[in-house]
Amino acid sequence: MHEKGLPKNLVLQQLKFKLKEDFTYDSGKILGSMCTKPHTFAKQIYMKCLEKNLGDPGLFHATTELEKEAIQLLGSLLSNPNACGHFVSGGTEANIMALWAARNLYKKKRDEVIVPASTHYSFDKATDLLGLKLIKVRLNERFQVDTAAVERAITPKTLAIVGIAGTTDLGIVDPLRELSEIASAHNLYLHIDAAFGGFVLPFLRELGYANVDFDFKLPSVCSITVDPHKMGLAPIPAGGILFRQKAIMKSVSIKGPYLAGGNTEQSTIVGTRSGASAVAVWALLTHFGREGYTAIVNRCMRLTWKLAEGIEKMDKVSLVTKPVMNIVGIKSEVIDIRLIAQKLREKGWAASLFPNHIRIVVMPHVKLPHIQNFLKDLKKTIGEIK
C-alpha cells in the first residue's frame, strides 16, 4: 500500500490498463458462459442498495421482506408460492445448502448422495465439506441420468438423490418425475439443480419448445437451486436456494445473538449477504413478469436454433444432440475437438471445452451477427486444420 493515495483519475487509468485483457459481454465473443451482462435496470437498483446487509435483518427489515417476496415470486414460477429460501452467492453455495439441510434432517444417520455423472462439480465440494459420500451413476443414451442405475445405487445409507434441470455440459433435463417416484418410494431427500434451467424451462413450456416437469410440482422435490444471475439477468452474486417448506430451511438455522439489529436466526452459510442482489432480483421479477422473461428466452432459443442449423450444414462437425434449451454442443468425429477450440480461441472466441465437445451458451448478450460471425470462423477453422 502506498503511503499516500493516488488521485481518482490516475486510479481509473490504471484500472483501464489492468482490465483491458478481460473479455466483455458486449463484444459477443463470450459464448461459453452461463452468466451474462446484468440488465441496466438491475444495475441501477443494485447501486442504490450497496450498503444493505441481509446478514443483519433487524437493521434491514425492509430489504429482508423484499428478499422473501422475491423468493415467493420465484416459488410461484417453480410451482410453489409458499416456498422459502434465500439469495446466496451462486449455485455452488445453494447446492451445499441443500445437502446440508438433507444431512441435518436425517440427523447424520445417512451419508450417501446419488448424483448423475453429468452433475456439476459443486456437489464434489458439498459432499467433501459435509462429510458425505458422492455416488455418481451413469447416463442413458439421451445424456440423462439412468434411473435404473439410480435404483440400484440406493442402500440403507442413501441420504439424497440429485436431479439436474439443465446440465452444465449440454442443458439436458433428467427424468425428474421418475426420480421423484424413486425418492418417494425410498423416503429420500430429492434436490433439483436448476441453476441454469430454472430461468429457462418455465418459459420454454409457454413457448411450446418443451414441457417437462422439473420443479415443486413433483411431490418429492425438497429443494431447488435456481440462479437469477444467469438467465434472470441479475447482477452477480445472485444464486438462489428454495426449500419446499420452512421446516427444511429450519434444519440449517442458527441464532446470531450479537447482531446490531437484535437476536435473529440465519439459515445461510455466510453471515454478511448482499441485500443489493435480492432487491435487484425483486425489481427484475416485478419489471419483466412472465411475459418479459418469455420474450428473452424466445429470442435466445431462436438464435440457438440458427446456430444449430448452421452447424448441421457443415462438414466434419456436428451437434452432440439437438438443443433442449439455449445450449449447443459441437463435436467432431474426424478432428480433435481440442484443436478446434484452440483455433477458435486464437480468433477471440471464448467457448467452453469439455472432454468430447465444445459448448456454446446463447445468452441474452448474444446477437444474430455474433452467431453469424462465429459460424464463419468455425467453418474457416475447420478448413485450416489438415
Structure in words:
There is one protein chain. By secondary structure, this protein is an alpha/beta fold. It has 2 domains: 8-39 and 290-384, Aspartate Aminotransferase, domain 1 (Alpha-Beta Complex), CATH 3.90.1150; 40-287, 3-Layer(aba) Sandwich (Aspartate Aminotransferase, domain 2), CATH 3.40.640. Helix content is 40%, strand content 15%. The protein contains 12 helices and 13 strands. The protein has helices at residues 8-18, 40-48, 61-77, 91-105, 122-130, 147-153, 176-186, 201-207, 246-250, 275-312, 337-346, 368-384; strands at 84-88, 112-116, 133-137, 158-164, 189-193, 221-225, 239-243, 254-256, 264-266, 318-319, 327-331, 352-353, 358-361. The strands form 3 sheets. The chain has a 7-stranded mixed β-sheet with strand order 1-7-6-5-4-2-3, sandwiched between helices. β2, α5 (122-130) and β3 form a beta-alpha-beta unit. α2 packs antiparallel against α10 and α3 runs parallel beside α10. The longest helix is centred in the last third of the chain and has 38 residues, at 275-312. The protein is globular, with a radius of gyration of 22 Å. The protein starts with 7 loop residues before the first helix and ends with a helix.
